Amino acid sequence: MFRLKEVVVTLDEFEAMRLVDMDGLYQDKAADKMRVSRQTLGRIVESARRKVAKALVAGMAIKLEGGNIEMENGEMRSFLCSACKNGWGIPYGTGRPEKCPKCGSLDFRRHPNERGFGRGFRGGRGSGSGKCRRLAIAGGKS
Predict the structure, then answer these.
(1) What is the Cα–Cα distance from 19 to 121, expressed in whole angstroms?
(2) For 6-66, CATH number?
């Protein structure tokens, strides 16, 4: 199987490009949103643009990685245990629980009221139904 070479774009670079290039914000406003100086934002955008241009020209894959994600309004994901019927919630972005906190069963699923936003149902991945509010910048104030 053929595998593309990758260019790694950090989440702060991605967010800076989104704010400036897609949303059309001036750099000073984008810098305020990201809680960095305008000069720092300029360096981040320049680095991101260089990496994206390299990927486009050289036919490389763009890989997003690094950084912390802050989820909107502290919303929770709900789970339901099939063994004991216990329901519980955990914040988005904390990973999948290992077991039911009440009975320890591994037989649990997302609560039926929250299902349907992945893998081909209701638009699948990237359909704009995510919960991410903003990206927290590593080294910046959160």
Answers:
(1) 29
(2) 1.10.10
